[in-house]
Specification:
Blueprint (H helix, E strand, L loop, with lengths): L5 H22 L8 E5 L2 E7 L2 E5 L4 E9 L2 E6 L2 E6 L3 E4 L2 E9 L2 E8 L2
Antiparallel strand pairs: 1-2, 2-9, 3-4, 4-5, 5-6, 7-8, 8-9
């Protein structure tokens, strides 16, 4: 039987707890069908599994992913629509939005209030 020091056990428990809290936070937010978001304060990451919309209450906005075409997407934010390429950042309806990634139908955006 392998023995671990109290410090090692504390680190392992802390890592497991942080992972569990992250998964729980993401699972509790967003819509159905693989859509979801997580926020720390007013900085949010939204993931879409195909087109659809998410009401991100922390930002008081609705994000509506309208189209995915290769590494380009069309995103509507409360009626204002913009096209994004991966890595591109734009300000839309008071939000600074970055298209982080597109992998098939899986799309991830980073959004925060524009300053």
């Amino acid at each position: 039987m392998r023995r671990y020091s109290a410090a090692t056990m504390g680190r392992r428990l802390g890592t497991a707890l942080a992972t569990l809290l992250t998964v729980a936070a993401l699972a509790g937010c967003g819509g159905a069908g693989g859509h979801g978001y997580g926020c720390q304060g007013s900085t949010c990451t939204a993931t879409f599994d195909g087109t659809g919309s998410q009401d991100i209450s922390e930002l008081d906005r609705e994000l509506d992913l309208r189209d995915i075409n290769g590494n380009t997407t069309a995103l509507r934010v409360d009626g204002a629509e913009e096209n994004f390429k991966v890595g591109e950042t734009k300000t839309v309806d008071g939000l600074r939005i970055t298209l982080e990634s597109v992998d098939g139908d899986s799309v991830t955006f980073h959004a925060e209030p524009a300053t």
